[in-house]
Structures are given as C-alpha cells and as structure tokens.
C-alpha cells in the first residue's frame, strides 16, 4: 500500500477525523489551525495553503490514521493505523511501570 502524497482533500480529512474521534477544536489545536478553518475545509471545501494542509495531515496521522494512495482498482482513502485491540494494548502499556524517575546511582 503506497502512501497518499497528494494534498489532503476535504473528504479524506473529514473521514480521518471521524476515525480518530477527535473534535475540530482538538485537531485544529494540534495542527495550529483555527477550528472554524478546519470545519470550513471539511464541510465547505474552503482551501488551505500547502503548509496548513500538511500540518492538518500530520496532526491526523499523529492521532492514528494512515492515508493511502489510489490503487489499480481506483480506490484511495484513509484507515486506522492500529486495530481496536492494538490501541487498547498500547494504552495499557503507557500506564505500566509507574512514573519514570532519574536513577540516583
């Protein structure tokens, strides 16, 4: 599966945000964009400059989605980076072992 390298489209951004289950406020903050700008991009197709588009893509990828390029069947899209069981496993690992402290050796 090849990575989708074209500029992020409004439909892919909306689908990715739905998969990540984050609000426009959260993803806007992560991408350093106004939440209204994110909403306008997703729902009204208001364009983003190349830098903002890349920041939005990076923020969505940080929240756990992967964009993939068009294949021989003509499809392109977005999916979760990890399955639901893998996400639960990762969340459990994050809390294991307690807080990290410096060694006094």
Commentary on this structure:
The chain is mainly alpha-helical. The protein has one domain (10-94): 434 Repressor (Amino-terminal Domain) (Orthogonal Bundle), CATH 1.10.260.40. The chain has 5 helices and 2 strands; from the N terminus they run ααααββα. It has helices spanning 10-20, 24-30, 35-44, 50-62, 84-95; strands spanning 65-68, 77-80. Strands 1-2 form a two-stranded antiparallel ribbon. α1 (10-20) packs across α3. The longest helix has 13 residues, at 50-62. The chain is globular.
Please indicate the count of domains: 1
CATH architecture: Orthogonal Bundle
Order of helices and strands: HHHHEEH
Largest sheet, in brief, is: 2 strands, antiparallel
Rg over alpha carbons: 17 Å
CATH class wording: Mainly Alpha
Fourth-level CATH superfamily: lambda repressor-like DNA-binding domains
The coarse silhouette is: globular
Give the integer mean of the pLDDT values: 81
Specify the structural class: mainly alpha
Number of helices: 5
Low-confidence stretches: none
Annotated CATH topology: 434 Repressor (Amino-terminal Domain)
Proportion of strand residues: 5-15%
Strand arrangement, major sheet: 1-2
Distance between the termini: 48 Å
Organism: Nesterenkonia natronophila
Protein name: XRE family transcriptional regulator
GO molecular function, one term: DNA binding
